[in-house]
User: Fold Conserved protein from Methanosarcina mazei.
Amino acid sequence: MLYKVLKTATSLAINAVLGILSLIVVKFLLGLEIAITWVAVLVCAIGGIFGALVIIVLNYLKIAFI
Assistant:
């Protein structure tokens, strides 16, 4: 039981770090003004790099995370 909880928490932490790092890299390379908020961190934690791509597309289309 404890192993499953720790494995899930570790997976979410790794996804969050990879997602946020990809947002920061894209922010500096493409010059997008992405607001890194708790919602963005949560999307990245759950979705990982795919979640970061969703945030980037929504920001590029000026729909969210502006």
Q: What stands out?
A: The chain has a mean pLDDT of 86. Residues 3 and 9 are 10 Å apart (CA to CA).
